[in-house]
Amino acid sequence: MKIYSKQFALTTAGCVLGICQAQHASAAVSDEDFKKLADTVQQLSAKVGSLEQTHQQDQQKIKSLQQQAAKTKEPAREAPPQAAAPAAPIIDLAGAANHNVVLAGDAEIQFGKMSGQHAGFTMADFAPIVLYRANDNILFEAGFDITLGNNQSTLPGGNTLNNGHSTSVDLSFAQLDYLVNDYLTVIGGDMILPLGTYQERGAGWLNKIPDDPLARSILPSSGVGVQLRGAAAVGTDGSLVTYSAYGVNGPSSVDGSGNSTYADGSGNNPFNLDLGGNVGGNANLHRNPSYGGRVGYFLPFSAHHDVEVGISGQTGEWDNSGHHRWSAAVLDTAVHLGSSIEFKGEYISSWLQTEDIGTAKPDGWWVQGAYKFAGLDLDLPLINSLELVARYDALHDGFGTNTNRGTAGFVYYFTNTLQMAGDYEWFHSKGPNATPGSGFILQLSYGF
Amino acid sequence: MKNMNRPITSKQRVAAGAGFSVAVAAATALFVLPVSADNDAKAAAAKAPSLSGSELYAIHCNRCHSERYPKEFQASQWKTLLTHMRVRANLPASHAKEILKYLQEESGN
Protein backbone atom coordinates (compact mmCIF):
# COMPACT_ATOMS: atom_id res chain seq x y z
CA MET A 1 0.00 0.00 0.00
CA LYS A 2 2.81 2.42 0.77
CA ILE A 3 4.22 1.99 -2.71
CA TYR A 4 0.93 2.73 -4.48
CA SER A 5 0.42 5.89 -2.38
CA LYS A 6 3.80 7.27 -3.31
CA GLN A 7 3.20 6.63 -7.04
CA PHE A 8 -0.14 8.39 -6.94
CA ALA A 9 1.41 11.42 -5.22
CA LEU A 10 4.22 11.69 -7.76
CA THR A 11 1.81 11.43 -10.72
CA THR A 12 -0.43 14.14 -9.36
CA ALA A 13 2.50 16.46 -8.82
CA GLY A 14 3.76 15.89 -12.35
CA CYS A 15 0.37 16.80 -13.79
CA VAL A 16 0.19 20.01 -11.86
CA LEU A 17 3.66 21.03 -12.96
CA GLY A 18 2.84 20.16 -16.56
CA ILE A 19 -0.26 22.32 -16.64
CA CYS A 20 1.60 25.21 -15.25
CA GLN A 21 4.40 24.88 -17.79
CA ALA A 22 1.93 24.74 -20.73
CA GLN A 23 0.27 27.85 -19.68
CA HIS A 24 3.65 29.57 -19.66
CA ALA A 25 4.53 28.49 -23.24
CA SER A 26 1.29 29.55 -24.84
CA ALA A 27 1.69 32.82 -23.42
CA ALA A 28 5.10 33.25 -25.19
CA VAL A 29 3.87 32.76 -28.99
CA SER A 30 3.07 36.04 -30.73
CA ASP A 31 0.52 36.54 -33.55
CA GLU A 32 3.30 37.15 -36.01
CA ASP A 33 4.94 33.90 -35.15
CA PHE A 34 1.60 32.14 -35.34
CA LYS A 35 1.03 33.47 -38.87
CA LYS A 36 4.49 32.37 -39.95
CA LEU A 37 3.78 28.99 -38.53
CA ALA A 38 0.45 28.84 -40.33
CA ASP A 39 2.12 29.81 -43.59
CA THR A 40 4.71 27.14 -43.08
CA VAL A 41 1.99 24.57 -42.44
CA GLN A 42 0.18 25.65 -45.61
CA GLN A 43 3.41 25.34 -47.63
CA LEU A 44 4.06 21.92 -46.19
CA SER A 45 0.50 20.92 -46.94
CA ALA A 46 0.92 22.03 -50.55
CA LYS A 47 4.15 20.04 -50.81
CA VAL A 48 2.48 16.96 -49.39
CA GLY A 49 -0.31 17.34 -51.95
CA SER A 50 2.25 17.63 -54.72
CA LEU A 51 4.11 14.59 -53.45
CA GLU A 52 0.89 12.61 -53.25
CA GLN A 53 0.19 13.48 -56.89
CA THR A 54 3.72 12.44 -57.91
CA HIS A 55 3.31 9.23 -55.95
CA GLN A 56 0.09 8.43 -57.75
CA GLN A 57 1.80 9.03 -61.11
CA ASP A 58 4.69 6.81 -60.06
CA GLN A 59 2.27 4.11 -59.04
CA GLN A 60 0.62 4.26 -62.43
CA LYS A 61 4.01 4.05 -64.17
CA ILE A 62 5.00 1.06 -62.06
CA LYS A 63 1.74 -0.67 -62.85
CA SER A 64 2.25 -0.04 -66.57
CA LEU A 65 5.82 -1.35 -66.45
CA GLN A 66 4.69 -4.46 -64.60
CA GLN A 67 2.12 -5.17 -67.30
CA GLN A 68 4.77 -4.78 -70.00
CA ALA A 69 7.12 -7.08 -68.14
CA ALA A 70 4.38 -9.69 -67.84
CA LYS A 71 3.80 -9.56 -71.60
CA THR A 72 7.52 -9.98 -72.22
CA LYS A 73 7.71 -13.06 -69.99
CA GLU A 74 5.02 -15.00 -71.91
CA PRO A 75 7.03 -15.67 -75.11
CA ALA A 76 10.07 -16.36 -72.98
CA ARG A 77 8.17 -19.19 -71.28
CA GLU A 78 7.14 -20.63 -74.65
CA ALA A 79 10.71 -20.63 -76.01
CA PRO A 80 12.69 -23.94 -75.78
CA PRO A 81 14.75 -24.11 -72.64
CA GLN A 82 18.05 -24.50 -74.51
CA ALA A 83 17.48 -21.09 -76.11
CA ALA A 84 17.96 -19.47 -72.75
CA ALA A 85 21.51 -20.71 -72.33
CA PRO A 86 24.18 -21.68 -74.86
CA ALA A 87 24.31 -25.50 -75.32
CA ALA A 88 27.45 -27.31 -74.33
CA PRO A 89 29.35 -28.87 -77.27
CA ILE A 90 28.48 -32.58 -77.77
CA ILE A 91 30.95 -35.12 -79.13
CA ASP A 92 28.98 -37.42 -81.42
CA LEU A 93 30.78 -40.63 -80.51
CA ALA A 94 27.52 -42.52 -80.61
CA GLY A 95 26.69 -41.17 -84.03
CA ALA A 96 23.63 -39.53 -82.60
CA ALA A 97 22.90 -37.44 -85.69
CA ASN A 98 19.50 -38.50 -86.90
CA HIS A 99 19.89 -37.78 -90.59
CA ASN A 100 22.97 -38.93 -92.39
CA VAL A 101 23.82 -39.55 -96.03
CA VAL A 102 26.74 -41.71 -97.10
CA LEU A 103 27.89 -42.52 -100.60
CA ALA A 104 29.33 -46.00 -101.04
CA GLY A 105 29.83 -48.20 -104.10
CA ASP A 106 32.48 -48.98 -106.66
CA ALA A 107 33.85 -48.17 -110.09
CA GLU A 108 35.43 -50.44 -112.70
CA ILE A 109 37.06 -50.33 -116.05
CA GLN A 110 37.66 -53.53 -118.07
CA PHE A 111 39.97 -54.42 -120.91
CA GLY A 112 39.54 -57.79 -122.58
CA LYS A 113 39.75 -60.04 -125.57
CA MET A 114 37.71 -63.08 -126.50
CA SER A 115 38.72 -65.49 -129.26
CA GLY A 116 37.57 -64.24 -132.64
CA GLN A 117 37.30 -60.66 -131.43
CA HIS A 118 39.64 -57.68 -131.22
CA ALA A 119 41.00 -56.58 -127.88
CA GLY A 120 39.59 -53.43 -126.40
CA PHE A 121 38.23 -51.63 -123.40
CA THR A 122 34.96 -53.39 -122.87
CA MET A 123 33.40 -51.58 -119.96
CA ALA A 124 33.57 -48.42 -117.85
CA ASP A 125 31.21 -48.58 -114.94
CA PHE A 126 30.39 -46.36 -111.99
CA ALA A 127 28.09 -47.96 -109.43
CA PRO A 128 27.29 -45.63 -106.52
CA ILE A 129 25.10 -46.63 -103.61
CA VAL A 130 23.29 -43.82 -101.83
CA LEU A 131 22.58 -44.54 -98.18
CA TYR A 132 20.19 -42.25 -96.34
CA ARG A 133 19.68 -42.98 -92.65
CA ALA A 134 16.55 -41.25 -91.44
CA ASN A 135 16.93 -42.43 -87.84
CA ASP A 136 18.14 -45.44 -85.88
CA ASN A 137 15.60 -47.75 -87.51
CA ILE A 138 15.07 -46.48 -91.03
CA LEU A 139 17.53 -46.66 -93.90
CA PHE A 140 16.91 -45.95 -97.56
CA GLU A 141 19.44 -47.36 -100.00
CA ALA A 142 19.60 -47.11 -103.75
CA GLY A 143 22.22 -48.57 -106.08
CA PHE A 144 22.87 -47.26 -109.57
CA ASP A 145 24.84 -48.69 -112.45
CA ILE A 146 26.12 -45.98 -114.76
CA THR A 147 27.83 -47.53 -117.76
CA LEU A 148 29.45 -46.07 -120.83
CA GLY A 149 28.51 -47.42 -124.26
CA ASN A 150 28.89 -46.63 -127.91
CA ASN A 151 26.79 -43.84 -129.31
CA GLN A 152 25.31 -44.29 -132.78
CA SER A 153 23.99 -41.24 -134.62
CA THR A 154 22.19 -41.05 -137.95
CA LEU A 155 23.68 -38.87 -140.68
CA PRO A 156 21.48 -36.73 -143.00
CA GLY A 157 21.84 -39.30 -145.79
CA GLY A 158 20.53 -42.07 -143.56
CA ASN A 159 23.88 -43.68 -142.81
CA THR A 160 24.84 -44.29 -139.20
CA LEU A 161 28.03 -43.37 -137.42
CA ASN A 162 29.48 -44.09 -134.02
CA ASN A 163 30.73 -40.70 -132.94
CA GLY A 164 31.32 -40.91 -129.24
CA HIS A 165 29.74 -42.56 -126.31
CA SER A 166 26.44 -42.80 -124.59
CA THR A 167 25.61 -43.38 -120.96
CA SER A 168 23.14 -45.86 -119.57
CA VAL A 169 21.84 -45.52 -116.03
CA ASP A 170 20.26 -48.56 -114.40
CA LEU A 171 18.65 -48.74 -111.01
CA SER A 172 20.21 -51.85 -109.50
CA PHE A 173 18.09 -51.66 -106.38
CA ALA A 174 16.14 -49.12 -104.35
CA GLN A 175 14.81 -50.28 -101.02
CA LEU A 176 13.55 -48.93 -97.73
CA ASP A 177 14.77 -50.86 -94.69
CA TYR A 178 12.82 -50.67 -91.44
CA LEU A 179 14.59 -52.31 -88.52
CA VAL A 180 11.59 -53.42 -86.49
CA ASN A 181 13.62 -54.98 -83.68
CA ASP A 182 16.80 -56.95 -83.09
CA TYR A 183 15.46 -59.92 -85.02
CA LEU A 184 13.42 -58.50 -87.84
CA THR A 185 13.93 -56.02 -90.65
CA VAL A 186 11.16 -55.22 -93.11
CA ILE A 187 12.29 -54.22 -96.59
CA GLY A 188 10.18 -52.78 -99.36
CA GLY A 189 11.07 -51.75 -102.90
CA ASP A 190 13.30 -53.09 -105.63
CA MET A 191 15.40 -55.53 -103.64
CA ILE A 192 18.44 -57.67 -104.29
CA LEU A 193 17.07 -61.15 -103.78
CA PRO A 194 18.64 -63.57 -101.30
CA LEU A 195 18.91 -66.40 -103.80
CA GLY A 196 22.30 -67.71 -102.77
CA THR A 197 24.75 -65.07 -101.57
CA TYR A 198 26.61 -64.06 -104.74
CA GLN A 199 24.31 -61.23 -105.76
CA GLU A 200 24.15 -59.65 -102.32
CA ARG A 201 27.92 -59.83 -101.90
CA GLY A 202 28.92 -59.42 -105.51
CA ALA A 203 29.85 -55.79 -106.14
CA GLY A 204 32.56 -55.28 -108.74
CA TRP A 205 35.36 -54.73 -106.24
CA LEU A 206 34.28 -57.74 -104.18
CA ASN A 207 34.44 -60.26 -106.99
CA LYS A 208 37.87 -61.74 -107.25
CA ILE A 209 37.04 -62.57 -110.86
CA PRO A 210 35.73 -59.78 -113.12
CA ASP A 211 32.75 -61.61 -114.61
CA ASP A 212 29.92 -63.50 -112.94
CA PRO A 213 29.53 -67.27 -112.73
CA LEU A 214 27.57 -68.57 -115.74
CA ALA A 215 24.86 -70.14 -113.62
CA ARG A 216 23.89 -66.81 -112.08
CA SER A 217 22.34 -65.94 -115.44
CA ILE A 218 19.38 -68.23 -114.73
CA LEU A 219 18.43 -66.31 -111.58
CA PRO A 220 16.85 -62.87 -111.16
CA SER A 221 19.14 -60.33 -109.53
CA SER A 222 16.40 -58.21 -108.00
CA GLY A 223 12.66 -58.13 -107.52
CA VAL A 224 9.99 -55.60 -106.62
CA GLY A 225 8.12 -56.46 -103.43
CA VAL A 226 8.47 -56.88 -99.70
CA GLN A 227 10.95 -58.88 -97.65
CA LEU A 228 11.28 -59.86 -94.00
CA ARG A 229 14.77 -60.76 -92.89
CA GLY A 230 17.00 -60.95 -89.88
CA ALA A 231 19.56 -62.93 -87.95
CA ALA A 232 19.96 -64.39 -84.50
CA ALA A 233 23.18 -65.13 -82.67
CA VAL A 234 23.56 -68.71 -81.51
CA GLY A 235 25.60 -68.90 -78.35
CA THR A 236 28.42 -66.49 -77.71
CA ASP A 237 31.07 -67.72 -80.14
CA GLY A 238 29.86 -65.68 -83.12
CA SER A 239 27.66 -68.39 -84.63
CA LEU A 240 24.43 -67.20 -86.14
CA VAL A 241 21.33 -68.18 -88.05
CA THR A 242 20.12 -65.96 -90.87
CA TYR A 243 16.66 -65.98 -92.39
CA SER A 244 14.68 -64.12 -95.03
CA ALA A 245 11.30 -64.45 -96.70
CA TYR A 246 9.90 -62.32 -99.48
CA GLY A 247 7.12 -61.81 -101.98
CA VAL A 248 7.83 -60.12 -105.32
CA ASN A 249 6.13 -59.62 -108.66
CA GLY A 250 8.37 -62.37 -109.97
CA PRO A 251 9.31 -63.42 -113.49
CA SER A 252 7.16 -62.48 -116.43
CA SER A 253 7.20 -62.62 -120.20
CA VAL A 254 9.79 -60.70 -122.17
CA ASP A 255 7.27 -59.47 -124.73
CA GLY A 256 4.71 -58.39 -122.13
CA SER A 257 2.12 -60.80 -123.50
CA GLY A 258 1.86 -62.79 -120.29
CA ASN A 259 2.26 -65.99 -122.31
CA SER A 260 4.51 -68.72 -120.95
CA THR A 261 5.83 -69.77 -124.33
CA TYR A 262 9.27 -70.96 -125.34
CA ALA A 263 9.82 -68.12 -127.84
CA ASP A 264 8.61 -64.55 -127.49
CA GLY A 265 6.10 -62.86 -129.80
CA SER A 266 8.87 -62.05 -132.27
CA GLY A 267 10.08 -65.64 -132.40
CA ASN A 268 13.24 -64.96 -130.41
CA ASN A 269 14.71 -67.88 -128.50
CA PRO A 270 15.60 -69.34 -126.11
CA PHE A 271 12.44 -68.46 -124.21
CA ASN A 272 9.93 -65.75 -123.50
CA LEU A 273 11.05 -65.28 -119.90
CA ASP A 274 11.88 -62.04 -118.13
CA LEU A 275 13.44 -63.10 -114.83
CA GLY A 276 13.36 -59.59 -113.44
CA GLY A 277 9.62 -59.29 -113.90
CA ASN A 278 7.69 -56.13 -114.49
CA VAL A 279 6.46 -53.15 -112.56
CA GLY A 280 3.19 -51.47 -113.43
CA GLY A 281 0.33 -52.67 -115.58
CA ASN A 282 2.30 -55.13 -117.66
CA ALA A 283 2.13 -58.89 -117.75
CA ASN A 284 2.13 -61.12 -114.67
CA LEU A 285 0.90 -58.40 -112.36
CA HIS A 286 -2.24 -60.32 -111.54
CA ARG A 287 -2.95 -61.90 -108.18
CA ASN A 288 -0.09 -64.40 -108.28
CA PRO A 289 3.20 -62.98 -107.06
CA SER A 290 6.28 -65.13 -106.43
CA TYR A 291 7.51 -66.13 -102.99
CA GLY A 292 10.97 -67.02 -101.81
CA GLY A 293 13.42 -67.06 -98.95
CA ARG A 294 16.72 -68.23 -97.57
CA VAL A 295 17.93 -69.85 -94.37
CA GLY A 296 21.63 -69.88 -93.55
CA TYR A 297 23.97 -70.91 -90.76
CA PHE A 298 27.36 -69.36 -90.06
CA LEU A 299 29.84 -71.11 -87.80
CA PRO A 300 33.14 -69.41 -86.94
CA PHE A 301 35.88 -71.42 -85.26
CA SER A 302 38.06 -68.33 -84.80
CA ALA A 303 38.73 -65.14 -86.71
CA HIS A 304 39.09 -66.00 -90.43
CA HIS A 305 38.24 -69.65 -89.81
CA ASP A 306 34.58 -70.27 -90.55
CA VAL A 307 31.96 -72.16 -92.53
CA GLU A 308 28.69 -70.85 -93.92
CA VAL A 309 25.95 -72.85 -95.59
CA GLY A 310 22.60 -71.73 -96.91
CA ILE A 311 19.58 -72.91 -98.83
CA SER A 312 17.24 -70.64 -100.72
CA GLY A 313 14.51 -70.74 -103.30
CA GLN A 314 11.73 -68.94 -105.11
CA THR A 315 8.59 -70.01 -106.89
CA GLY A 316 5.66 -68.36 -108.62
CA GLU A 317 3.60 -68.23 -111.78
CA TRP A 318 5.09 -66.34 -114.66
CA ASP A 319 2.11 -66.23 -116.99
CA ASN A 320 -1.24 -64.54 -116.69
CA SER A 321 -3.63 -67.41 -117.09
CA GLY A 322 -1.97 -70.80 -117.62
CA HIS A 323 -0.63 -71.32 -114.07
CA HIS A 324 2.84 -72.08 -115.39
CA ARG A 325 5.49 -71.64 -112.76
CA TRP A 326 9.09 -70.57 -112.60
CA SER A 327 10.94 -71.99 -109.60
CA ALA A 328 14.54 -72.08 -108.41
CA ALA A 329 16.57 -73.56 -105.57
CA VAL A 330 20.09 -72.60 -104.54
CA LEU A 331 22.60 -74.23 -102.20
CA ASP A 332 25.46 -71.97 -101.19
CA THR A 333 28.55 -72.38 -99.08
CA ALA A 334 31.67 -70.45 -98.10
CA VAL A 335 34.71 -71.63 -96.16
CA HIS A 336 37.63 -69.59 -94.80
CA LEU A 337 40.77 -71.35 -93.64
CA GLY A 338 42.74 -68.43 -92.24
CA SER A 339 42.93 -64.92 -93.62
CA SER A 340 44.56 -66.16 -96.82
CA ILE A 341 42.49 -69.12 -97.99
CA GLU A 342 38.90 -68.95 -99.16
CA PHE A 343 36.55 -71.36 -100.91
CA LYS A 344 32.98 -70.70 -101.95
CA GLY A 345 30.42 -71.92 -104.40
CA GLU A 346 26.77 -72.39 -105.30
CA TYR A 347 24.59 -75.01 -106.91
CA ILE A 348 21.61 -73.55 -108.74
CA SER A 349 18.65 -75.43 -110.14
CA SER A 350 15.54 -74.01 -111.80
CA TRP A 351 12.32 -75.23 -113.35
CA LEU A 352 10.49 -73.43 -116.11
CA GLN A 353 7.04 -74.63 -117.09
CA THR A 354 6.08 -73.55 -120.62
CA GLU A 355 2.93 -73.57 -122.67
CA ASP A 356 4.42 -75.35 -125.66
CA ILE A 357 7.51 -77.41 -124.81
CA GLY A 358 6.93 -78.67 -121.28
CA THR A 359 9.23 -78.01 -118.35
CA ALA A 360 12.78 -76.88 -118.98
CA LYS A 361 15.33 -77.38 -116.21
CA PRO A 362 18.23 -74.95 -116.48
CA ASP A 363 20.84 -75.57 -113.79
CA GLY A 364 24.48 -74.96 -113.02
CA TRP A 365 27.13 -74.59 -110.36
CA TRP A 366 30.37 -72.87 -109.55
CA VAL A 367 33.22 -73.29 -107.11
CA GLN A 368 35.98 -70.79 -106.46
CA GLY A 369 39.17 -70.85 -104.45
CA ALA A 370 41.56 -68.04 -103.62
CA TYR A 371 44.91 -67.75 -101.89
CA LYS A 372 46.58 -64.56 -100.64
CA PHE A 373 50.37 -64.59 -100.60
CA ALA A 374 50.21 -62.39 -97.52
CA GLY A 375 49.71 -65.67 -95.70
CA LEU A 376 53.36 -66.54 -96.34
CA ASP A 377 54.34 -63.45 -94.33
CA LEU A 378 57.27 -62.70 -96.61
CA ASP A 379 59.18 -59.45 -96.40
CA LEU A 380 58.24 -58.71 -99.99
CA PRO A 381 55.45 -56.09 -100.27
CA LEU A 382 54.82 -56.75 -103.96
CA ILE A 383 54.22 -60.44 -103.32
CA ASN A 384 52.19 -59.85 -100.18
CA SER A 385 49.71 -57.75 -102.17
CA LEU A 386 48.99 -60.56 -104.61
CA GLU A 387 46.14 -63.07 -104.48
CA LEU A 388 45.66 -66.01 -106.83
CA VAL A 389 42.16 -67.17 -107.70
CA ALA A 390 40.63 -70.01 -109.69
CA ARG A 391 37.05 -70.90 -110.56
CA TYR A 392 35.25 -73.68 -112.35
CA ASP A 393 31.65 -73.19 -113.36
CA ALA A 394 29.05 -74.93 -115.47
CA LEU A 395 25.69 -74.09 -117.00
CA HIS A 396 23.11 -76.35 -118.61
CA ASP A 397 20.57 -73.99 -120.11
CA GLY A 398 17.80 -76.60 -120.26
CA PHE A 399 17.49 -76.28 -124.02
CA GLY A 400 20.39 -78.45 -125.14
CA THR A 401 23.41 -76.19 -124.60
CA ASN A 402 25.96 -77.18 -121.98
CA THR A 403 28.88 -74.91 -121.11
CA ASN A 404 31.80 -75.53 -118.80
CA ARG A 405 34.41 -72.89 -118.04
CA GLY A 406 37.71 -72.89 -116.22
CA THR A 407 39.17 -69.60 -114.98
CA ALA A 408 42.54 -68.75 -113.50
CA GLY A 409 43.42 -65.26 -112.39
CA PHE A 410 44.91 -62.89 -109.87
CA VAL A 411 44.06 -59.87 -107.77
CA TYR A 412 46.68 -57.26 -106.96
CA TYR A 413 45.79 -54.97 -104.06
CA PHE A 414 47.26 -51.47 -104.48
CA THR A 415 45.34 -50.46 -101.38
CA ASN A 416 42.57 -52.14 -99.40
CA THR A 417 39.99 -50.91 -101.94
CA LEU A 418 41.96 -50.23 -105.15
CA GLN A 419 42.79 -53.40 -107.00
CA MET A 420 43.65 -54.88 -110.35
CA ALA A 421 42.08 -58.21 -111.25
CA GLY A 422 42.84 -60.31 -114.28
CA ASP A 423 41.94 -63.76 -115.51
CA TYR A 424 42.09 -66.13 -118.41
CA GLU A 425 39.01 -68.23 -119.23
CA TRP A 426 38.65 -71.50 -121.13
CA PHE A 427 35.22 -72.39 -122.47
CA HIS A 428 34.01 -75.86 -123.38
CA SER A 429 30.56 -75.40 -124.85
CA LYS A 430 28.27 -77.58 -126.95
CA GLY A 431 24.77 -77.05 -128.24
CA PRO A 432 22.72 -74.61 -130.30
CA ASN A 433 23.81 -71.63 -128.17
CA ALA A 434 27.42 -72.66 -127.60
CA THR A 435 29.89 -70.04 -126.32
CA PRO A 436 33.01 -69.94 -128.48
CA GLY A 437 36.66 -70.14 -127.49
CA SER A 438 38.47 -68.48 -124.68
CA GLY A 439 39.75 -65.09 -123.66
CA PHE A 440 41.11 -62.83 -120.98
CA ILE A 441 39.82 -59.90 -118.94
CA LEU A 442 41.69 -57.24 -116.97
CA GLN A 443 39.78 -55.09 -114.55
CA LEU A 444 40.78 -52.11 -112.44
CA SER A 445 38.30 -51.58 -109.67
CA TYR A 446 37.87 -49.25 -106.74
CA GLY A 447 35.49 -49.61 -103.83
CA PHE A 448 34.39 -46.66 -101.74
CA MET B 1 9.65 -82.94 -124.03
CA LYS B 2 6.93 -84.13 -121.72
CA ASN B 3 4.21 -81.63 -120.99
CA MET B 4 4.11 -80.85 -117.29
CA ASN B 5 1.20 -78.41 -117.31
CA ARG B 6 -0.85 -80.10 -114.65
CA PRO B 7 -3.40 -78.43 -112.38
CA ILE B 8 -2.40 -77.93 -108.77
CA THR B 9 -3.38 -80.94 -106.69
CA SER B 10 -5.01 -80.87 -103.26
CA LYS B 11 -1.81 -82.32 -101.79
CA GLN B 12 0.16 -79.40 -103.18
CA ARG B 13 -2.40 -76.98 -101.81
CA VAL B 14 -2.10 -78.52 -98.34
CA ALA B 15 1.69 -78.34 -98.51
CA ALA B 16 1.57 -74.72 -99.64
CA GLY B 17 -0.90 -73.89 -96.89
CA ALA B 18 1.25 -75.56 -94.27
CA GLY B 19 4.32 -73.71 -95.51
CA PHE B 20 2.49 -70.41 -95.47
CA SER B 21 1.21 -71.07 -91.94
CA VAL B 22 4.72 -71.81 -90.69
CA ALA B 23 5.99 -68.61 -92.31
CA VAL B 24 3.21 -66.54 -90.72
CA ALA B 25 3.85 -68.13 -87.33
CA ALA B 26 7.56 -67.44 -87.62
CA ALA B 27 6.94 -63.83 -88.61
CA THR B 28 4.52 -63.35 -85.71
CA ALA B 29 7.04 -64.81 -83.31
CA LEU B 30 9.67 -62.41 -84.57
CA PHE B 31 7.42 -59.44 -83.85
CA VAL B 32 6.57 -60.74 -80.37
CA LEU B 33 10.04 -61.98 -79.39
CA PRO B 34 11.58 -58.69 -78.25
CA VAL B 35 8.66 -57.91 -75.95
CA SER B 36 9.18 -61.02 -73.91
CA ALA B 37 12.94 -60.70 -74.15
CA ASP B 38 12.87 -57.16 -72.83
CA ASN B 39 10.97 -58.43 -69.81
CA ASP B 40 13.60 -60.97 -69.09
CA ALA B 41 16.94 -59.61 -67.99
CA LYS B 42 18.56 -63.01 -68.27
CA ALA B 43 17.49 -63.36 -71.86
CA ALA B 44 18.86 -59.92 -72.59
CA ALA B 45 22.17 -60.84 -71.03
CA ALA B 46 22.30 -64.05 -73.04
CA LYS B 47 21.91 -62.06 -76.24
CA ALA B 48 25.09 -60.09 -75.65
CA PRO B 49 28.04 -61.59 -77.48
CA SER B 50 31.07 -62.47 -75.43
CA LEU B 51 33.32 -61.54 -78.35
CA SER B 52 34.56 -57.97 -78.55
CA GLY B 53 33.71 -55.58 -81.34
CA SER B 54 37.16 -55.94 -82.92
CA GLU B 55 36.87 -59.73 -82.83
CA LEU B 56 33.42 -59.67 -84.41
CA TYR B 57 34.74 -57.20 -86.98
CA ALA B 58 37.51 -59.65 -87.89
CA ILE B 59 35.04 -62.54 -88.09
CA HIS B 60 32.34 -60.90 -90.19
CA CYS B 61 33.71 -58.12 -92.37
CA ASN B 62 36.57 -59.93 -94.06
CA ARG B 63 34.23 -62.65 -95.25
CA CYS B 64 33.20 -60.48 -98.19
CA HIS B 65 35.62 -57.60 -98.61
CA SER B 66 39.01 -56.26 -97.67
CA GLU B 67 39.39 -54.63 -94.31
CA ARG B 68 38.07 -51.08 -94.06
CA TYR B 69 40.00 -48.98 -91.60
CA PRO B 70 38.05 -47.27 -88.79
CA LYS B 71 39.50 -43.89 -89.65
CA GLU B 72 38.11 -44.03 -93.20
CA PHE B 73 34.76 -42.73 -91.97
CA GLN B 74 33.38 -40.55 -89.22
CA ALA B 75 31.37 -41.95 -86.31
CA SER B 76 28.00 -40.92 -87.75
CA GLN B 77 28.96 -42.34 -91.16
CA TRP B 78 29.89 -45.64 -89.55
CA LYS B 79 26.44 -45.77 -88.02
CA THR B 80 24.85 -45.47 -91.45
CA LEU B 81 27.24 -47.99 -92.99
CA LEU B 82 26.70 -50.52 -90.20
CA THR B 83 22.94 -50.17 -90.59
CA HIS B 84 23.44 -50.94 -94.28
CA MET B 85 25.71 -53.89 -93.56
CA ARG B 86 23.42 -55.26 -90.87
CA VAL B 87 20.70 -55.54 -93.52
CA ARG B 88 22.86 -56.58 -96.47
CA ALA B 89 25.02 -59.15 -94.68
CA ASN B 90 22.24 -60.19 -92.30
CA LEU B 91 24.27 -59.54 -89.15
CA PRO B 92 22.64 -60.07 -85.75
CA ALA B 93 21.81 -56.78 -84.05
CA SER B 94 24.03 -57.58 -81.06
CA HIS B 95 27.03 -58.21 -83.35
CA ALA B 96 26.38 -55.11 -85.45
CA LYS B 97 26.19 -52.94 -82.34
CA GLU B 98 29.50 -54.24 -80.99
CA ILE B 99 31.22 -53.75 -84.35
CA LEU B 100 29.79 -50.24 -84.62
CA LYS B 101 31.01 -49.37 -81.14
CA TYR B 102 34.51 -50.57 -82.03
CA LEU B 103 34.62 -48.65 -85.33
CA GLN B 104 33.27 -45.44 -83.78
CA GLU B 105 35.73 -45.54 -80.92
CA GLU B 106 38.62 -46.16 -83.29
CA SER B 107 37.46 -43.61 -85.84
CA GLY B 108 38.84 -40.85 -83.63
CA ASN B 109 36.07 -38.35 -84.33
Structural topology:
The complex is a heterodimer of chains A (448) and B (109).
Chain A: H1 2-26, H2 31-78, E1 100-114, E2 120-135, E3 138-154, E4 160-181, E5 184-192, E6 222-233, E7 240-248, E8 290-302, E9 305-317, E10 325-337, E11 341-353, E12 359-360, E13 363-372, H3 381-384, E14 386-396, E15 402-413, E16 418-430, E17 438-447
Antiparallel strand pairs in A: 1-2, 1-17, 2-3, 3-4, 4-5, 5-6, 6-7, 7-8, 8-9, 9-10, 10-11, 11-12, 11-13, 13-14, 14-15, 15-16, 16-17
Chain B: H1 10-38, H2 41-47, H3 53-60, H4 75-88, H5 93-107
Helix pairs in contact in B: 3-5, 4-5
Q: Which descriptor suits the 3D outline of chain A?
A: elongated
Compute the number of strand runs of chain A.
17
Structural class of the helix and strand makeup of chain B?
Answer: mainly alpha
Please give the share of residues in helix of chain A. Answer: 10-25%
Largest interface: A-B, 67 and 56 residues
Shape of chain B: globular
Computed Rg of chain B? 21 Å
Can you write the helix and strand succession of chain A as a string? HHEEEEEEEEEEEEEHEEEE
Number of strands of chain B: 0
Number of helices of chain B: 5
